[in-house]
Each structure stands twice: as structure tokens, then as C-alpha cells.
Amino acid sequence: MKPRKSVIPGFGLTMGYTIAYLGLIALIPLSTIFLKTAGMGWHAFWSVIGSARVMAAYRLSIGASIAGAAINSIFGLVVAWTLVRYRFPLRGVVDSLVDLPFALPTSVAGITLTAIYSEHGWIGRLLAPAGIKVAFTPIGVVVALTFVGLPFAVRTVQPVLQDLESELEEAAATLGASRIQTFRRVIAPALLPATITGFALAFARALGEYGSVVFISGNMPMRTEVVPLLIMTRLEEFDYQGATAIALVMLTVSFAMLFLINLLQRWSVGRHAAG
Amino acid sequence: MPPDERELWRMMDGGFDWARADETTAQMRRATSEPAWARALITAIAIVFLGVFLLIPLAAVFTEALRQGVRVYLAAITNAEARSAIRLTLITAAIAVPLNLIFGLAASWAITRFEFRRKNLLTTLIDLPFAVSPVIAGMIYVLLFGAQGYMGGWFAAHGIKIIFAVPGIVLATIFVTFPFIARELIPVMEAAGVEEEQAALTLGASGWQTFFRVTLPNVKWGLLYGLVICNARAMGEFGAVSVVSGHIRGQTNTMPLYVEILYNDYQFSAAFAVASILTALALVTLIAKRAIGGRLKSRELPVESEAADQEAA
Amino acid sequence: MSIEVRNIRKKFGNFTALDDVSLNIESGELVALLGPSGSGKTTLLRIIAGLEIPDAGSVHLGGEEATARSARERGVGFVFQHYALFRHMTVFENAAFGLRVRPRRRRPSEQQIRARVDELLKLVQLEWAGERYPSQLSGGQRQRVALARALAAEPRVLLLDEPFGALDAKVREELRRWLRRLHQELHLTGVFVTHDQEEALEVATRVAVLNRGKIEQVGTPEQIYHHPVTPFVSSFLGNVNLFHGRIHDGRVYLGGTSVAVQEGAGVHIGAPNGGRAMVHIRPHLLEIELRPNGKDSFPATVKHINAAGSRVKVELISAWEDPVRVEIDHERLRTLALRPGLQVYVSPRENRVFVYQI
Fold first, then answer.
1. Residue C87: which of A175, A178, A275 has the nearest Cβ?
2. Crossing angle for the helix pair B80-113 and B166-192, nearest 10 degrees?
3. What integer best gives the mean pLDDT of chain C?
4. Which chains form contacts with chain C, at 3 or more CB pairs under 8 Å?
């Protein structure tokens, strides 16, 4: 790799360190997954992946992640709208708090959510008379995944909403559109790329989430066991091959998501720049 | 560049322009806003949603921590195991963060100061940890350095323990947190531009002198921002560390892991007590991010405000 | 439809944008709101549109009180400075918007909408652009789409906020002529905001000059240019020479000379006898002679001659050291054989001066 801009010194040193670091910390360790699964043989691989328990875990992980991301997309829009357009006391504090799920260690989130939603917890006790159990059910998993994905949905939409020229809405008003019509026809289409990006990010995060989920789910195989959990179980049983096989599928999905998000970002940037 | 946690960290606090938001709010109170009842309803929904998902958990941590009184609380965070967990967390961060700092500086220097092919590949590689579940992040180190790992034999023969020991924990933490500083520095260094450094070189400064006297001061806020985020994540990582640590009490438990152990032992108040320290750390992180983010934003060029133009016209 | 605003007041925080402004616009007029930044012209326009709510005063559209009505209900077409086109919609969809959002009872059929939009796109000469997106058009084209969009909704009045401000000089000129023609064809009442006095004088049927939240003068372009009633209007429109002097007995004394000043066509006297006065004289209303031939004139020295243009701009320094600008035609330049350093005599033509007390 010959640098064209070599007036500034330090290319060799910085590039070398960077690649060495990346190689040692990330690339070589990651390669073990491929090595391990390569050594498994197709038959073993498919029998692991296709087993009922693993399939159930995939279904739960994907389903709950979609549900969580969807909830976040809807309410995230409401939250972003409120933060950008309305005034209320302590708005700054609320805005900062939106990032709490980022800053909080996942195990703390996990035990706290479990405490709140278990039958005697603050919220669990309100829902129990209605026969709704949250902790140790798939619903609990969705709640936990909603928690971790919350900032993504809000923060992708927020800057777009802020940059939305008020003139567009004024133009729609002078042309006779009602507020709802303006939202449906003018505002929502402008927010669509950001909303989808937020959904994708929340989904990707939720898919790999471990700490927040492991406490509230109860980890019952076939019912409330998410994929990261299953991988952990296999590791504890020293079934490295099984763990690796499951992990490989997860990685593939994650990389695909990252790729998709990349495309979405390009699409939304293209929209934004236009006009 | 794919958006990722780092971008979102940036969109957060540091990115929210309160002056613009106030203007937008003022504009929206004009003739084209929704009726008052709709505004109240939307605000209520937002507050309830955030209250349920953010405020209640926040309150719950501290409530549960103090459920059995202050004595028990203090005992839980000052006993030997707790102290060793705190120590291990601090040691891990103290090693991981500086190493990631050097990586961040090196990577951003290489990326922003030079042209080379496959620069996109490099930036994508830096994003890698975001696509990897924490459990998998820990697992790959077990596969590599564990007893049956690809390199496990060599280390065992030399009496070096990686997995189920501190080095493994540090490695896993580094993996999960190395993108943060780099991804924060890259746009800041990009924005600062090469001209000042080129000027320094023409004036006779060496590479190192240029770096310390010209580059670093320019990027200090972005650097600080990245440090805050990286540190928070390094201290709070759970999944990856859980896999490599072996959960050996008093030896290989960081605070997040210690919380889990206490909880599984049904020592709920103690678990929440330790959790409360981590929560306080999270809140401090949020405050720091807001403060630094403000500085970061104010160094940008003032954006022409059409609202101001309109109001003037 | 006529527009009337009465006693409008509007403040933004501590800043007074409009201070007791009243204006009457007859149906079919094209009125320009002219003034510098901060004069309140855009605020006034937006109040007429219903995009701002005045602190005091009332707005009447077509004789009816409209102050309480929302922008949606006023039936005004508004063209924004930066077009505000909906970028996720095609040109056609943008233009059709106003018709498509009408309540069911008043909404025309899709066919009728199509016909109307096609008609308007043809009017703005963009019938070929129907399926394009705003991002694919130039600034001038986008502004025409914005115009078509506003007109398609069948407004009773058309309001334009610095419509050509964001465009190149050439495109601006073209669109100005275009707007005038459009107004003549459609007979729609129109109000537009501009800070460019050339634009106002060229396009409008009447001009309202605003300064610091007040209307200084309203009149036809000729009236405000040739017969300004306040110093601000006089100096804002076109170039003026500013001289200090004293008024006494029908003459204004400038430096060592005096000029007869009588109230009459073109002359506005605002200063009392013996008072200090400011005199405005337009460059093309001054004459240069090589000798004082009995006219009221003052001596000046030629400093700089700019002959690049349709007229010659001569810069001089007066006997009392004030800069003087005079415009003459090329023939006169040749006749006088002017050159830098030459001492000449400058006199006002036709006594067209603007004098007021300071």
C-alpha cells in the first residue's frame, strides 16, 4: 500500500501498529470460529444448527429482536418528536437519560429489569392480577431487548427531525393540508430512512444481547432461551463445536445486518442531499 | 461508513444542539403547530414510555440496594470480594483504555493523514466488534487461548494463564472497546485538517513534535469524548468477560460479573449495592458526555440560522 | 382579493419587528415590500399568510377579518425563499399537493387535478419536468415549480418571500420579467418581499418601503424614486450624494456656495429657516461645467473617471472636501475633456434635491 500523501511522516509506524493491533486482537481470534466450523464437517454442522432447541432459540432471538426494535421505532419517534419540538421542564435531563442503556452495564440492567417485572416487582405486581407474566417469559425478553435498543431508535431520528425545515410544513399548511395530512405526506416520508436505520440498529443490537436478557428470561430451553445464552450454555458444557456452529450463523446474520445498515445510510444520505 | 454505536454515542448529547432545538420549538409554536391537546398527549406518551423504561429501572437500582438498610449496603460494597471486584474492574480499564487510546490515535492518524487503497476496508474492520455479540467476543478468545484452544498448549506449557485469568479478561475487554476512541477521533481529525500539521513541518518540526504540539491540542475534546465512552464500556462489559473469566471468586470477577454472582446467590441487596456503584458510574458518564459534547459542538462553525434571518427580516 | 393590515405590532423577544404598521392592498395589485434586513418586511408577509401571529392589530382578506384564521384556511399561495419543495415527491406531485389534500367535498377528480397541474406546468414552462425530482432541477426551475405549486391550489392571493434571492443575477432578471408577465396574465393580487430596490422598482405596481418595523412610504415606483418623503427612502433607493448645508431664505448653503432651493416639483424641503440641513442629490441630476456660467454651482476637483458602462461615473472632491458622484453620458465626457485633477463646477439640475433638517 503506497501512500500518495507522504509529506506527513508516520505512515509506516501508525499503519503498522494499527494492522498489528487489529490482527492480534480481532482478526486472529475471529478466525478461530471459521477454523473450528471448518473442522466440523457439514453433517455435524447442520445437525447442530438444525436441532429443535437451536431453532427455537433462533426463532425467539429473531422474533423478540424484531418486536423490540418495532416498539422502539414507534415510541422512539414519539420521544424524538417530543424532545425536538416541545418544551417541558428538565428536557435536557430527559435527553441525556435516553443514553442510559448505552452507559449502563448489561448485567445491572438485567437484574434490575428482572426485579421490576417479577411477580412482586413494581410493575410485575400491577400486571399479575390481569394474569400477565413478564419475567421468565418471552415477553420479558422483549422488554429487555426494548431497553437496550431504545437509544438507537431515538438518536437516528432526532437529528433528521431537527434538521427538517419548518418551511416544508408551512408550505403544506398554506397549500391547505391539515396537520395530520402534513405529517403523513411530508414529515413521515422524510423520516423514513432514519426510522428504518434506527430499527435495523436496534435489531442488530438486540440480536446479540446477553447480559440484559439472561436474568429476566429464565433461560428455559425451547421457550425462553435466546441464542447468546445457548452459546454460553454450550461453552459451559465444553461443547465448543456446537457453540461455534451456532455462533457462525449469528455472525453471518450480524454481518448481513451491518451491510444492510450501510446501504440504508447511503440511501438516506442520498435523500438528504437531494433538493 | 456504517453507523454504529460510536456514531450514536456522538449523536447523543454532544450532538444535540439545544439552541437550535429551542429555535425549532419556538417556530413550532407558531401557526403551524398541532393543537395543544395533541401536544400534551404526545408528550405524555413519550414521558410514560421513558418513565417505564428508564426512570423506573434507575429508581429500582437504588431502592433495592438500600432495601436492607445502609449498613448492609456499605458492607456489600466494602467486603473483600467486592474490593477485589472493584480492583479488577479498575485494572482492566486501566490497561484496556490506554492501549485503545494508542490504537485510536494511530488508526486515525493513518486513516486521515494518508491516502491509500482499501481505506474503507480498514474502517470497516474497526467497526467489527459492533457486529459481534459479546458472548461470541469472549468465545473466540477461549477458542484461541483456552486449554483446548489453538494456542492454549503453548501458553500452558509456559505457565501463562490467559483464560480464567486477568489477561483473558483484559483481552476480551479490549476487543469490545477498541473502536470507540478511533471512531471518535477520525471525524475530528478529518475536520481539523492537515494544513496546520503541514505548516508545522515546513517550520522544521519533527513528526512527534507536530503530533504533540499541533495535532493533539486540536483534537482534545474528541479524544476526551472517546475516552469517556471507552472507559464506560470497559468497566461495564459483561457478556464477553463472563465467558473468559471462569467466575473465580475473589480473582476473576469484575464488578458486572460480581453483580451476577451475588444475584445468583440470592443476595439481592448486595447485588444491587454493587450495581448501584456501576449505575452511578453510568450517570457520571452521561454527565461527562453532555459536558464534553457541548464543547465539541461549540468548536464547529456557527450554522447560519434561517430562523434568525427570518426574524431579522 | 384585497388585503388590508391595520396597526400590526410584532415583537420577537426584545426585538420589535413591526411597530404599528398599516397597509392597504387593492385587488389585482402587485405590491413590493422593500427594505433592508431587519425592516420587518418578511414578518409582515408571514403575518398576512397566517404563518406568524401578530401581537396586536388585524388582517383583513377580501374585506373579511382573517386574523384568527390559520394559514390553512386563508387561501393564500406562499412561495418561500428556498422553495420548500417536497423532495420525496416529483414535480407533478408537488404541484398537485394543494389539490390532493382538499377535504373530500372540495377535492377535484384525479383527471381534473391532472389537467390543472399540466396547465400550470406549461405556464411555468416545465411541462417536461413532471416526473423529475426537485434535486434534478436547477434553482430557477425549482422556484418555478414552487410557483406552480402555489398557483395550482387556486389561491386568492400570491405571497412571495424574496423569491429570487437565492438565484444568480441572470436568472433573477429573467424570473423578474416572468413574474411581471404572470401577474399581468393572471390578475392575481400579489405581494412580494425583497431587499433589492431594482427588483421592486422593476416588477411592482406599488412599493412599500419599510425600515425598522415601520412603513416609510408607499407609492408607485416613480413616486418613491423621484419623490421620496423621508431621508431613508431617498438614500435607500438608488445612489445619492449626501451634503451638509444650511437653509436660509430659499437657498441651501453648501460649503462656500449656495444653491437655490424652492419647494416645487422634485424638491422636498423639510428644514426650517436657518437650520442645518442634509441635502440628497442623485448623481444623474448633477451637471459638470468647466466654468461657472451663472448657475448655482460649486467647485470640485475630478478624482476618478469610470467610463466602463452605459454612462460615465465621475468621482470628484468638492471644495469643502466632500466626495461627489456625478453621472454623465459619454458625449459630455468628450466635450468636457475631463481628466483627473481638473477643476470643474458642479450644479444641480432642475433643482431636484431632497433637503431635510438634521
1. A275
2. 40
3. 86
4. A, B
pLDDT on residue B6: 43
Residue C277: band (very low, low, confident or very high) from pLDDT cuts 50, 70, 90: confident
Nearest to C37 among B31, B306, B312 (CB): B312
Contact C166, C139 (CB under 8 A): yes
Mean pLDDT in residue range B229-233:
94
Nearest-by-CA chain B residue for A94? B50
Q: Which three cell numbers stand for residue C221?
A: 415606483
Whether pLDDT at A214 is above 80: yes
Amino acid (1-letter code) at residue A265: Q
Q: Is the pLDDT of residue B5 over 90?
A: no
> Are residues B136 and A231, on separate chains, in Cβ contact within 8 Å?
yes
Lowest mean pLDDT among A53-62, A265-274, C254-263, C290-299: A265-274
- Give the DSSP letter of residue A221: T
> Does the beta carbon of B308 lie under 8 angstroms from any beta carbon of chain A?
no
Q: Residue B32 is nearest to which of C17, C51, C162, comparing CB atoms?
A: C51
C39 close to B313: Cβ distance less than 8 angstroms: yes
* CB spacing of A172 vs C78 below 8 angstroms: no
* Nearest residue of A to residue C158, measured between CA atoms: A174
Interface membership of C52 toward B (CB under 8 Å): yes
Burial readout B62-100 (b: 16 or more C-beta within 10 A, e: otherwise): bebbeebeeeebeebbeeebbebbbebbeebbebbbebb
Least confident of A258-262, B7-11, C345-349: B7-11
Q: Residue B137 above 60 pLDDT?
A: yes
Query: What DSSP character marks residue B224?
Result: H
On whether the CB atoms of residues C43 and C18 are closer than 8 A, the answer is yes
* Long-range contacts of residues B21-25, Cβ cutoff 8 Å, at least 24 apart: B21/A83, B21/A84, B21/A162, B22/A87, B23/B305, B23/B307, B23/B308, B24/A84, B24/A85, B24/A162, B24/A166, B24/B307, B25/A84, B25/A85, B25/A86, B25/A87
From chain B, the residues in CB contact with C39 under 8 A are 313
Residues of B in contact with A182 (CB under 8 A): 32
Q: By CA distance, what is C34's nearest residue in B?
A: B313
Percentage with pLDDT > 90 across chain A:
50
Interface residue A274 vs chain C (CB under 8 A) = yes
- Inform me whether the C-beta atom of residue B31 falls under 8 Å from chain C C-beta atoms: yes
Inter-chain CB pairs, A–B, below 8 Å: 345
DSSP letter for each residue of C121-170: HHHTT-GGGTT--GGGS-HHHHHHHHHHHHHHT--SEEEEESTTTTS-HH
The chains in contact with chain B, meaning 3 or more Cβ pairs closer than 8 Å, are A, C
Neighbours of C329 (CB within 10 A): 12
Q: Specify the 3-state DSSP secondary structure of C86.
A: coil
Inform me whether the C-beta atom of residue C193 falls under 8 Å from chain B C-beta atoms: yes
pLDDT at C358: 62
pLDDT band at C350 (very low <50, low <70, confident <90, very high): low
C74 at the B interface (CB within 8 A)?
no
C177: cell is: 420579467
How does pLDDT run across A233-267, given as a tens digit for each residue? Answer: 998 888 888 999 999 999 898 888 888 887 877 77
Separation in Å, CA of A259 to nearest CA in chain C? 24
Residue B218 pLDDT: 84
Q: Does B144 touch chain A (CB under 8 A)?
A: yes
Q: Which three cell numbers stand for residue C226?
A: 423621484
pLDDT at B9 (0 to 100): 46
**Closest chain A residue to the Cα of C51, Cα to Cα:** A170
Q: What is the pLDDT of residues B28-66, one digit of tens each?
A: 445 678 888 899 999 999 999 999 999 999 999 999 999
ipTM of this predicted structure: 0.87
Residues of B in contact with C15 (CB under 8 A): 311
